[in-house]
Amino acid sequence: MIRILLVDDQALLCEVLKTWLEVESDFQVVGITNDGESALKSVESLKPDVVLIDVEMPGMDGLKATELITSRFPNTKVIVLSAHDDDSYLLKSLRAGAKGYLLKNTTAEQLASTIRLVEQGQNQIVPAYQQNETSAMAMQKQLEAMVQKYEEKFQSFLTQVQTSVNGNSSVSLDATLLEDKLTSKLEASEAKNSSEIEQLRQQINALQAEIGNVNSLIEQQFKLQIQDFKEELHEDLTFALQQWSQKNEPAKPDLSELESKYRTDLMTVLNPLRANLRELDQQTRFLRSGLLVSVLTAAMSLTFASWVFVTNTAAKTSTQKTEQNLHSQVEQKLR
To answer: Rounded mean pLDDT of 105-113?
Structure first.
């Protein structure tokens, strides 16, 4: 058994909804309230499974009440029953925690199906473009059936009273007065019901005309909204994919850090080589200087040796010539 709480400031609509729901064997209407504050108290005391709530009500509106109900009573599910087919109200209702969104021109079958699905934990949203003249005609037929049912009940009650009065021979004038009072009350009730039914029929006719005029506009708006939603979804998916790619992309190395690291490692290797090269250069310069000195010394020694040799040779030659001259002179003298 699904326990249902009705919250709407229109008493006639609440009675219609109650009549629709009580036809279902698995539904039980546990209470009716007309504002958000009393709805919170009723939810706390009655513990309903599903709350049918209007958006615009005196005092606390339905959106605020929905938010409080879903936060305080998580086991109770809320279905917003609104006269607004604007998607902004739909989004606000969903953000407030509603599990379903229906327009007030929905059919009894659609209402019952939505309540069952929501009670099972499914989100159920019936868009406005699906609720056309067929739902309005079905509502009119169900209202007429309800009115006929109440008329039959009144007629049955009146028949029972008249039978009771006619079957008692000892009834006095008070019984006749009672019958007159009952008849007058019945006539007044029928007149009131006829007036309310006429008003309701006028509202249904106005609703049919309004649906016929704006049905094409609703379809166009829905197509545009679907297109906008697709574009927004595409942007969100693209952004999410970029973030995911950035998170999963391997981290790029910092070139400056690598350069600094490799430069440090390279300097660690090159500095000893530079020191060895400086030392080798110094040794090379020293060897060059020593070699130059050696070459100069050898050249000087060779020059000196040559000079000594030449000098000695010249001296020997001169001595030999002198000896020859002397020998020649001696020979001449001896002759």
So the answer is: 88
Q: Residue 176's pLDDT is what? A: 57
Q: What is the pLDDT averaged over residues 259-280?
A: 79
What are φ and ψ of residue 79, in 5° steps? Answer: -120, 120
* Most confident region among 97-101, 176-180, 245-249 by mean pLDDT: 97-101
Handedness of CA 185, 187, 190, 195 (dihedral sign): negative
Nearest alpha-carbon partner for 56 in 36, 73, 40, 79: 36
Q: How far apart are CA 95 and CA 89, in angstroms?
A: 10
Asked if residue 266 belongs to a domain, the reply is: no
Whether 312 maps to a domain, the answer reads no
Number of domains in the chain: 2
pLDDT digits (tens, 9 = 90+) for 162-190: 666 555 544 444 545 655 666 666 666 66
| CATH number of the domain within which 43 lies | 3.40.50.2300
Q: Is 316 part of a structural domain of the chain?
A: no
| Residue 216 domain boundaries | 134-167+175-235
37-41, 81-85, 134-138, 301-305, range with greatest mean pLDDT: 37-41
Host H or E run for residue 29:
strand 27-33
Amino acid letter for position 81: L
Question: Can you tell me the distance from the alpha carbon of 64 to that of 92, in angstroms, rounded to the nearest whole number?
Answer: 10
The answer to the question of residue 71 being in a domain is yes
pLDDT averaged over every residue in the chain: 76
The per-residue DSSP string of 211-260 comes to HHHHHHHHHHHHHHHHHHHHHHHHHHHHHHHHHHHHHHSPPPP-HHHHHH
Residues 97 and 70 sit within 8 Å (Cβ to Cβ): yes
